[in-house]
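Appendix B: a complete holo record

For completeness, this appendix reproduces one full record from the ligand-bound portion of the collection. The bound molecule is pyridoxal-5'-phosphate. The inputs are the chain sequence and the ligand SMILES; the output is the full three-dimensional arrangement of the complex, encoded as structure tokens. No fields have been trimmed.
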Amino acid sequence: MSLSLRLEVDLDKIKYNAAKVVELCHNRGIAVLGVTKGFSAIPQIVIALREGGVDGLADARMENIFELRNEGCLESITLLRIPRLSNVDNVVKYCNVSVNSEVAVIQALGQAAKKMGVDHQIILMVDVGDLREGIMIENVLDTVRKVVRVEGIRLVGLGTNMGCFGGILPEYSNLNVLVNLGKMIEARLGVPMEVLSGGGTSSLLLVERGEIPPGINQLRIGEGILLGTDTTNHRIIDWLKNDAFVLKAEVIEVKLKPSVPIGNIGRDAFGNIPEFTDVGIRNKAIVALGKQDAYIEGLIPVDKGITILGASSDHTILDITDTTSKIHVGDELAFHVTYSGLLSVSQSRYVKKVFRKDKIWSN
Ligand SMILES: *Cc1c(COP(=O)(O)O)cnc(C)c1O
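The structure of the chain with pyridoxal-5'-phosphate bound, as generated:
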């Protein structure tokens, strides 16, 4: 039996995580969008999110959204990356809601919606400090005035994003900016703000602590549900499962080798000059896994006695000296994935996906 390089996905754990996050948020009056971009919207995983009770789906890629619709998905889908001006027809056709920050794009979305005889809903993104997408706070009122005039568009609320470019942490104060802007828009312009979308996984900590400003009524959660981690706050979320995804790769060589290469050092396979510290002879293993398959920095050996020394396109070299388990050629080694690791393996055609549901494994 050939052991393919594969990503094992425990759908029961993902469903569990989704249900726990939904329960926490619903208790605070917050809806949860299940974010599907971290796993390229693989249908089996989308179903697990749905079974966990998420209130809608969200993705940043139109390719993923086309696939969701082709699979027969009828749920509300929010486009999380501000739309491309050249792609507004597809956005209106396939997404119920999109997040936006450019008036020219919103006008084009409006024209497309009118042509199709529908209303397209938008959330206006406000930049409260992370400096990724969004309107600067002082320009919000003006922008809303322009947006509410656009036919075919229904402005449903405001959103913000943190912890992405600038690494800014969500806090009561910066999220409350969104709440106050919403109140001001309602008071001054009479436009009801149905949705105040307060960020992704990094905002969950505020919900747990009861510190999320009242009024925030939507979060868009990917990483937390999938991996049970919160990279921005640098924490493992201890009430969620952290091992729903495991990558397995086959050992193709095990040998004692020196820790420093022998000969004159030029460049490695990727043009870098490698550096080594001499720690003597080490027991090393190579697995059939490389940079062509996965973002290696996004993998963590499950066995804590194993460390990744490096990788080329098709080989990953491991130091197995300190593990207590005996490793042979033909064995499989398991790796946890980080968010960036998951992004890479979920869309790699070299990595087979297998799913566990109701304790049964299947493709
Ligand atoms: C990716 C993304 C999210 C989800 O972030 P997680 O940290 O995975 O929860 C939320 N909102 C926007 C706009 C995104 O691009």
